[in-house]
Design goal:
Catalyzes the oxidation of 5,10-methylenetetrahydrofolate to 5,10-methenyltetrahydrofolate and then the hydrolysis of 5,10-methenyltetrahydrofolate to 10-formyltetrahydrofolate. One of its GO terms (cellular component) is cytosol. InterPro entries: Aminoacid_DH-like_N_sf, NAD(P)-bd_dom_sf, THF_DH/CycHdrlase, THF_DH/CycHdrlase_cat_dom, THF_DH/CycHdrlase_CS, THF_DH/CycHdrlase_NAD-bd_dom. Homodimer. α2 (50-66) links the parallel β1 and β2. The protein is of the alpha/beta class. It has helices at 13-35, 50-66, 81-93, 112-118, 130-137, 146-157, 177-186, 201-205, 250-253, 267-285; strands at 40-46, 69-75, 99-102, 166-170, 190-194, 210-213, 231-234, 238-240, 243-245, 259-260. 41% of the residues lie in helices and 15% in strands. The longest helix is centred in the first third of the chain and has 23 residues, at 13-35. The chain binds 5,10-Methenyltetrahydrofolate (GUE). 5,10-Methenyltetrahydrofolate binds next to α2, β3 and α10.
Amino acid sequence: MSDEGYESRIIDGKVLAKKIEGEVESGIKALVSDRGVTPGLATVLVGDDPASKMYVRLKHKACERVGIRAEDHFLPAETSQEELISLINTLNKDRNVHGILLQLPLPKHLFPQEAMEAIAPEKDADGFHPYNMGKLMIGDEGLVPCTPHGVIRALEEYNVPIKGKNVVIVGHSNVVGKPMAAMFLNRNATVSVCHVFTDDLKKYTLGADILVVAAGVKHLIKADMVKEGAVIFDVGITQEKDGVYGDVDFENVIKKAALITPVPGGVGPLTIAILMKHVLNCAETNF
Ligand SMILES: Nc1nc(=O)c2c([nH]1)NC[C@@H]1CN(c3ccc(C(=O)N[C@@H](CCC(=O)O)C(=O)O)cc3)C=[N+]21
């Protein structure tokens, strides 16, 4: 690696996202011409949190690029659980809606778990429904969460072996850490999941051949915490006035990493491209 510049160590999420979106676009063209079906994604946003609004907008723009019909359902912050479930039931029955995305987090008075369970499992583009999560857990990967799916796709793209490798995941959320661990276990990696209560984080991260960090703590991972030659995915996003920061101290950690994702321009665009792929998959299997 010493004769290569740092550039080559960077996993460019935008480039990979473009490739995936190209595949999705072709798949959609085929579906439209073979069956006359245009995939549809319904996004549901409750309340007007600016970050959530931006993420939903990014997803709609991606839909436009690949040829997915996107509908935007905006509910005011004071919406009741019953009203939210009622909208989801309507979308479940709508034959032109193949994927449903309930943007998280929800306002505090609502129950996200119950709302996600209301989504028809076959329309669960996010892969958050307990049915899809359960299938993932037993090694039957259908609709899986987009970010972990994107990480696996990137490893495949760069021919990084997984079987028998030491994988360390920092963060045990239902949306990233837990499904990520299941996907690596399904591929026979040795998996450690660290989180806020982990006693000595560095002890684990130093042993990682593949490190996935999804803690939401700016620059949590420093250069002295990673192994030389590690492959590192930074899932964190901390928005500050002067910019967006990841969970990894990129400038310094890149010197030791074989491959690393930047923030922004890494896992984020990849996640959105995979979401597009899932909507296509939903439309292909359920029209
Ligand atoms: N049901 C649900 N599904 C989600 O997939 C979901 C969600 N809720 N809630 C919030 C998180 C966050 N998320 C992001 C996706 C893309 C970028 C992304 O593409 N970011 C760009 C721009 C970053 C910036 O400028 O702030 C980048 O990283 O380059 C970021 C964040 C999806 N989420």
